[in-house]
Design brief:
The structure holds two protein chains of two kinds. By secondary structure, chain A is an alpha/beta fold. Chain A has a single domain, classed as Divalent-metal-dependent TIM barrel enzymes (TIM Barrel, Alpha-Beta Barrel), CATH 3.20.20. Helices cover about 40% and strands about 20% of the residues of chain A. Chain A is built from nine helices and twelve strands. In chain A, the strands form three sheets. An eight-stranded parallel beta barrel of chain A has the order 1-2-3-4-7-8-9-12, surrounded by four helices. Chain A has a two-stranded antiparallel sheet with strand order 5-6. In chain A, helix 1 links the parallel strand 1 and strand 2. Chain B is mainly alpha-helical. Helix content of chain B is about 50%, strand content about 10%. A three-stranded antiparallel β-sheet of chain B has the order 5-1-6. In chain B, helix 3 packs across helix 4. Classes of the chains: A alpha/beta, B mainly alpha. At the A-B interface, helix 2, strand 6 and helix 4 of A face helix 1, helix 2 and helix 6 of B.
């Protein structure tokens, strides 16, 4: 992998950038109150031009931008989607993002594309395959990427590894880092019945380049069962803030993203969540 | 092994839980079905929301319930299966059987294509002043990347813009700068934009309009004013 020097993300709170908040970011920047960084789904900017690029260019001139891809489908049997990877590479050349990430998942077969992050088995074969896929992405982009731990609703019966060990092995083999999504840990722990604190305590902080926090929903399935759903549609839960503080006490400050993708709130609500993340960072940094 | 796992999960998501091999996932059957349902719902929801967001005017015209039934049927017929979310509506208009609904959908898709098209400086009428007739006819132009012409079914134009006359036969979609603009157009203008796919002398396009457009070659002025061309100086 040929490394390209890139700007880095501040170890402060950032926000997931939505179109409805473009003008708010620029207005806040004028007042000296902009978020420390923003994150976008690069797939929303794969068009050649138009207003989305004008806004993103204006914002990227002022605050660091992170690209959080949802479409590479690195775990697919055919490996990363070549069209998505080409488009992402073009966008990285255009904006020089401070960070690039995608997910420990797959989203397409040779016949179908699924707009979701589907689980991969934690087997030796899957590890070899996924590490090779990450290598292809990093080679194409000329930079290290981060891989996010998924929200899990299912666990394969033939897994060889537990998730934390699998992620560590993936980072070692491919040279990627870890995007630690603490809300996803909570969702997976609820659905698969493991202890979130134990999971988190097993993660090597040196691998973690960015953290996500978000809200999730817990729903009845109508048959007496309950399931946690990673909908990013509500404030960060108090339990998620507690897990964040627990991890940061061990790891030290990291860039923290407030993810809020559905029922997106007003700017002030989003920035209040970011301020809370900054307050957690200050506490652990003191 | 990975092939088999993914094929099984894909078949289950597409065709239902009877395609799930026994023992693929850990846990009791109820928990596994609960998890699969979350993935199936996420996929379906993402596709339906993408269609809603792509076709707001069609949704308003049909009503939310009818639009939802149509978009579900489109997704379930396989219309979305191989497309990325951003392209999911590309085949929707051609799938619709009602010609008015299809016209509205085509205009909305052209609007989206125009919105995301490459930026380029549009040729302006003011640039043509003082060049002389020979210079004007020889000026080479190309179809602006954000310009589209969409033929309309009879009666659909006022549903797209209340200001359009009912007999409007086509809509010109342009984005010379930040905003997408819609204009009533003549179907002959589609041939003119097609002819300008490669750099072409303005005189050629004027001659084409002279043959096919009720306004004759002078109709080129309205196309230029709308932002349909970019100047080609190379």
């Amino acid at each position: 992998m040929a490394a390209t020097p890139s700007p880095s993300l501040p170890r402060r709170a950032g926000i997931g950038l939505k179109a409805r908040h473009y003008a708010d970011v620029l207005a806040a920047w004028e007042r000296g109150a902009a978020p420390a960084w923003v994150e976008v789904h690069p797939q929303n900017y794969f068009g050649a031009g138009g207003p989305p690029h004008r806004w993103l260019a204006a914002i990227a001139d002022r605050v660091p931008v992170s690209f959080h891809s949802v479409g590479l489908s690195i775990g697919s049997t055919d490996g990363p989607d070549p069209q998505e990877l080409d488009a992402l590479a073009l966008l990285c050349d255009r904006y020089r993002p401070a960070m690039v990430s995608d997910h420990l998942s797959w989203s397409s077969t040779p016949r179908d594309k699924f707009p979701d992050l589907l689980p991969i088995p934690y087997t030796n074969a899957a590890l070899d395959h996924f590490a090779a896929g990450v290598g292809r992405v990093q080679d194409r982009l000329g930079r290290r990427i981060l891989i996010e731990n998924p929200s899990r609703y299912l666990a394969y019966a033939h897994d060889d590894w537990d998730e934390a060990a699998f992620l560590h092995a993936l980072c070692r083999r491919s040279g990627c880092g870890l995007l630690l999504d603490i809300n996803n840990v909570e969702v997976s722990a609820f659905n698969l019945g493991f202890d979130a604190e134990t999971w988190l305590d097993a993660i090597d902080p040196a691998l973690v380049g960015e953290i996500h926090v978000a809200g999730h929903a817990v729903k009845d399935d109508g048959g007496g069962g309950r399931i946690a759903i990673d909908d990013h549609g509500s404030p960060v839960r108090s339990s998620c803030w507690a897990l964040l503080a627990r991890f940061l006490r061990r790891a030290g400050p990291r860039p923290i993203l407030i993810e809020w993708d559905s029922d997106v709130p007003d700017w002030a609500v989003l920035m209040a969540e970011a301020a809370r993340a900054d307050a957690v960072l200050e506490l652990v940094d003191a | 092994m990975l092939d088999g796992d993914q094929a099984a999960v894909a078949a289950t998501l597409l065709l239902g839980p009877r395609h799930l091999p026994a023992g693929l996932f850990a846990g009791d059957e109820a928990a596994v079905l609960r998890g699969l349902r979350v993935h199936a719902n996420s996929i379906s929801h993402a596709r339906l929301v993408a269609l809603e967001e792509s076709f707001p005017r069609l949704r308003a015209h049909l009503g939310a319930g009818a639009f939802n039934r149509l978009s579900r049927a489109f997704v379930e017929s396989g219309g979305a299966g191989r497309r990325a979310l951003a392209d999911i509506g590309a085949g929707f208009a051609d799938w619709l059987t009602d010609p008015v609904a299809a016209s509205i959908a085509r205009v909305e898709w052209a609007w989206l294509e125009s919105y995301h098209a490459a930026d380029a400086r549009a040729l302006q009428l003011a640039e043509l002043a003082g060049g002389g007739e020979a210079g004007l006819l020889a000026l080479r132009v190309r179809h602006h990347p954000a310009a589209r012409i969409v033929p309309l079914a009879p009666g659909s134009a006022p549903l797209i813009d209340a200001a359009f006359a009912p007999d409007t036969a086509a809509v010109l979609v342009t984005r010379p700068d930040a905003d997408v603009r819609l204009f009533a157009a003549h179907p002959a203008e589609k041939a003119v934009l097609a002819a300008a796919a490669d750099p072409t002398a303005l005189g050629t396009l004027i001659a084409l309009l002279d043959e096919r457009h009720p306004g004759g070659g002078a109709a080129i002025a309205a196309l230029i004013d709308a932002g349909a061309f970019e100047r080609w100086d190379e």
